[in-house]
Amino acid sequence: MKADSRCLVCTANQALRVLNKYVRSEEEKWIRLQDMMKIISELKWGLKPIEMGEIVYTEIEKIVGKRDIYEKEKKRSNEMALAILEKIKRAIKDSADPLYDAAKLSIAGNLIDLGTPSWDEERVYNKILEILEKPFGINDYETFKEELSNATSVLFIVDNAGEIVFDRFFIEIMKEYNSSVQVFVAAKSKPIINDATVKEAKEIMDGVATVIDSGMTIPGTIVEKSSDAFRKLFFEADIVVSKGQGNFEGLDGEENENLYFLLTVKCAVVADYLRVPEGTMIFMKNIKKR
Amino acid sequence: MKADSRCLVCTANQALRVLNKYVRSEEEKWIRLQDMMKIISELKWGLKPIEMGEIVYTEIEKIVGKRDIYEKEKKRSNEMALAILEKIKRAIKDSADPLYDAAKLSIAGNLIDLGTPSWDEERVYNKILEILEKPFGINDYETFKEELSNATSVLFIVDNAGEIVFDRFFIEIMKEYNSSVQVFVAAKSKPIINDATVKEAKEIMDGVATVIDSGMTIPGTIVEKSSDAFRKLFFEADIVVSKGQGNFEGLDGEENENLYFLLTVKCAVVADYLRVPEGTMIFMKNIKKR
Lengths: 290, 290
Known about the structure:
Chain A is of the alpha/beta class and 290 residues long. In chain A, 53% of the residues lie in helices and 11% in strands.
């Protein structure tokens, strides 16, 4: 999908959010944001939103340094997701279709920003319970379930910290459903916003999946820019699960029949593109066999 | 008050809203917005938000032409406000303090964008009833009431279409409270966003106030750039009422003891400046006599 003019303003706003964390002086923040807006004002028409993110986050890194900007938030998100999972996992395991409910939890984890400081565990937990009641706006789950029963390999492309805890649980349930499936988890090479890195993914996925480095340092995945290991699995795995909007923005349009997009629609641009309201949960096969 | 970096993104967003109305091609919109962002990226630190608006709206006019961009919305707003006023005016006139309730209605009209296409009259009416229950966040009404009882002249600086209908009602009640007061209404020279123009103000204020041209063509009022007639009244009137955030942004800081700011706080920047939450209704004397 192609970015439109709303993405220009949104990208400026993302830049401001990072600057807010690292630049104290209001005047310096003004000047730095203007530098970013100048760069944004020169981005060529036809880019994917995620490619805009790549350019702008690379520039921001030059200002704030190569640090793990959201380290604290990511840690807090993971801890909160673990606590919530403990409360909820029994009910999912005992439900009529644990695979379906675990997928839903994994996608619900993508909706709420678990790192939002003002959200306590109770509030996130209640929000998750509320989301779990909602249907998918696009629903290819039954096809996925059928294909999973015959699969031997799954590539699971993770998105943010926090939700990755629910992803692990989803993968566990996938393996209970088909015990012969091997799961590979692809995570970011290095910190970018609140995306889960290889290091973090290895901790969370210990014992359930083999973690590989996607080669990506942007908040999404673009095949041409990914690592060899990623590309091999992307085209050879029986099933590829892509979590989140950033990965969707990068991988949409790929000729891959085994690819499923699991995401919560977080902005009006993607909502318009998929013709669903913002906030909709999506479980969508990339190219349906007809 | 000085703009901060949030105003850079907000100004870009305002530009996009106008472009959305007048530019059809997505690619052209992208390029035009980038032109605006380039201009925004060169605005100097220390400007008032309203001065940023002046520069950007002047540039946008070069693209979309000198037309009355919000003509339809303004007409619809006025009609809706008239219908709502008919329903509500009896209760206000019969209340314990009609002047207070009429002021509240005038400020409430500033909160809701009466021109929002998806809002029907019923919804706006209910919203107004809800708002009328809320207290002012800053409340110098009693001082105003006392000063009004001794005043012979009031300059009332109007803001948007729609709410101007409630302003007229407020002025009527002011004149019932003090029948010897003469009221002058200052409105914009020509169309800018949904601000009421001199032409529109003359229609609405017929029979209750003398309308003057403020000389302003930006969505707010700056004394140095205003007309001679405005400046004279601004410094000589016994009371000056400034409606809305745009006028507040421009007139805040003026040495004028007779000035009252009546507004609903519509953004985080002004909310931080006044130390109140967004959405707060303000009835504030500019400089309190100590």
